[in-house]
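Render this sequence as a predicted structure.
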Amino acid sequence: PKSTSIKVQIEGLMLQGCSFSGNLLGPVSAESPILSALPPCTFAYVSKDDTEPYPEANAALGIPIYFSSNREDFVCEIRLPCKGSTDRWILTGVAIFLTDL
């Protein structure tokens, strides 16, 4: 989309409720750690006037970003690509954290 000219790369984010392998959300096992580190991620602002980057149904999930794992301070929501029903990921409580405090 046209509005993605401003991009930022962020490192050190923590993910809960799923894994992120390659470029899709993935399942975690019962033995997986509660939080896992995301690889460095590039984020871009997409204007509501631009075309949806993930136009297919259930192609992406809005994931909340919180300041810490206590989920008290909501920062924003981002969309990450996924396959299958987004309900699966919602039920696992998927979230991203800036810090694991």
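Summary. The chain has a mean pLDDT of 86. The radius of gyration is 14 Å.
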